[in-house]
Structure formats: structure tokens, C-alpha cells
Amino acid sequence: MRDVAERVGITERAAIRIVKHLEEANVLVKERVGRRNHYQINMDKALRHPLESHGTVGALLKMLLGSKQVRRASM
After folding, report:
1. Pairing of the two strands 36-41 and 28-33
2. Chain centroid to CA 69: how far?
3. Which domain holds residue 51?
4. HSE, side-chain direction, 13 A CA sphere, residue 64
5. How many domains does the chain have?
6. Positions of E strands within 1-75
7. pTM of the model
8. Is the domain of 51 the same as that of 21?
9. Is the pLDDT assigned to residue 60 strictly greater than 70?
10. What does the pLDDT average to over 48-59?
């Protein structure tokens, strides 16, 4: 979480809180591997806002990052 927080420019505590909310919303699935956590993104999860609920997390990521990066990130 420390690396993610530094890269995004937020505190580690804020990063942990955001990830926890994403887990609770079933956008992220956490898997413990040894001493580390690995996260998988639920690309089919609908967006929460009523105006955007027709879209998915995967579609949003493709729009923001491009399809090649999203494909690589979801492997």
C-alpha cells in the first residue's frame, strides 16, 4: 500500500481506506499470497452512480488506460 500511496500522491492510510471500500463493494477481490496481498479487479462490476450504472469498471478502465494496459492489468 505504501508504494501505491506514494505513486498516487496520497497517504498510506487513505490508500488502505480506498482499497477497503473497493473490497466491500466487490470491485476488488483480495488473495493472500505469503506475506503479501494480491488483488483482482472485478471488471464486470457496474458503476455505482445512477447516471453511470450502465457502465462497468472494466469499461471505465479501458477508457482511462486503453485496452492493452487493461488487458495486461487483469491477467
Report:
1. antiparallel
2. 14
3. 43-75
4. 7
5. 2
6. 28-33, 36-41
7. 0.76
8. no
9. yes
10. 93
Residue 64, judged by CB atoms within 10 A of its CB (0-12, 13-18, 19+), counts as exposed
d(CA 44, CA 74): 12
- Looking at the fold, whether 10 and 38 belong to one and the same domain comes out as yes
**Is residue 47 a contact partner of residue 55, using CB atoms and an 8 Å limit?**
yes
d(CA 35, CA 4): 17
Collect all residues with Cβ–Cβ distance below 8 Å to 71 and sequence separation of at least 6: none
Phi, psi dihedral angles at 48 (to 5 degrees): -80, -35
Task: Indicate whether 12 pLDDT > 80.
Answer: yes
Amino acid, single-letter form, for residue 59: A
Q: What are the grid coordinates assigned to 42, written together? A: 472485478
